[in-house]
Design goal:
The protein is about 65% helix and about 0% strand. It is mostly helical. It folds into two domains: about 30 residues; about 230 residues, MetI-like (MetI-like fold), CATH 1.10.3720.10. A two-stranded antiparallel sheet has the order 1-2.
Length: about 325
């Protein structure tokens, strides 16, 4: 090394000091980089304040219309209400009354049966969505609108139309059956058929929405998979079960979760299709209908709140189980 060369080591030897590591920008004792603001500067606090101010209406609405009613319902489920609104703490008495209700087993079975019927309609939606994807031209949009109309139709109007179709004496369905020599039953007056009849209406009502979800999932499947399988000699059926269904499983999982939640909350069709004077009502009640009776007919709000809490916990448990099981059969591309 020449005498004119200068390094930290050489400088340390000349002064008798020990050489140390060079200090970088982030080393202790160095000056902060120009332009870097402290973490809790006034500018940062102002940005956070504006951010929270922008999302405050959402959180206020979520708290007032979702979280607070849940807390209130949980509290009311441990109380008994008087005729003029007085509340009295009764502990778990409402839950005990609900679980010992003689109507509960039949109502629970009707609810589960309806949910299973709705789940059975998912393959129908997949088939219709696959067929709809094959339709092109100026009539494709018209077909989609026609299939989606039941989704946006008023539930009361849907119930009234189907109540007329199901009429055992002059309904259109029994008239068509009579043309081929079949005497149709009283669909909405016999509790042996009411849940099946309402289940078919539920499938028909949700068909358009499910088709939209499945059609979007089908369009996201790369066409190269079908072309490669065709070169290997796979037919349409083999492609459907080996390519379409596995890659459509995320959409199927999403629809199945919504179908279970909607099926277990079924109430409107029981009220509007059957009516309070229908002889089949006693054997066609669901858990949601029991909630309606206690809350708005007999005025037992505490028992109704207990039913709502139990139904919510059941829905949460079933949804958690579905999310747990989806790891085994849902394939994300």
């Amino acid at each position: 090394m020449s005498a004119t060369e200068s390094t930290p080591v050489a400088a340390g030897r000349a002064t008798g000091a020990r050489p140390g590591p060079e200090r970088g920008p982030g080393s202790p004792g160095t000056r902060p980089v120009a332009g870097r603001r402290p973490r809790f500067s006034k500018a940062h606090m102002k940005e956070w304040a504006w951010g929270y101010a922008m999302i405050a209406p959402l959180f206020v609405g979520l708290f007032l219309f979702y979280l607070w009613p849940i807390v209130q319902s949980a509290y009311f489920s441990f109380t008994s209400w008087g005729a003029f609104g007085g509340q009295q703490w009764v502990g778990f008495q409402n839950y005990s009354s609900f679980l010992s209700d003689p109507q509960l087993p039949r109502a629970a079975w009707n609810t589960v049966k309806y949910a299973l019927i709705i789940l059975a309609g998912i393959p129908v939606s997949i088939v219709f969505a696959a067929l709809m994807n094959q339709v092109s031209g100026k009539y494709a949009s018209l077909y989609r609108v026609l299939y989606f109309l039941p989704v946006v139709s008023m539930p009361a109007a849907v119930a009234m139309v189907w109540r007329w179709l199901y009429n055992g004496d002059y309904g259109l369905i029994n008239y068509l059956l009579s043309l081929i020599g079949i005497h149709g039953p009283h669909w909405v007056s016999d509790d042996r058929y009411t849940i099946w009849a309402m289940g078919l209406v539920g499938i028909w009502s949700s068909l358009g929405y499910n088709m939209i979800i499945f059609a979007a999932g089908l369009k996201n499947i790369p066409r190269q998979y079908y072309e490669a399988s065709s070169l290997d000699g796979a037919g349409r059926v083999r492609q459907f079960f080996s390519i379409t269904l596995p890659l459509l499983s995320p959409s199927i999982f999403f629809v199945s979760v919504l179908s279970v939640i909607g099926g277990l909350q079924m109430f409107d069709m029981v009220l509007m299709m059957l009516g309070k004077t229908n002889p089949a009502l006693a054997g066609s009640k669901t858990i949601a209908y029991l909630f309606y009776e206690d809350a708005f007919v007999t005025g037992n709000q505490g028992l109704a709140a207990a039913i709502a809490v139990v139904l919510t916990l059941v829905l949460l448990a079933l949804t958690a189980i579905q999310f747990r099981l989806q790891k085994r059969w849902v394939h994300y591309a």
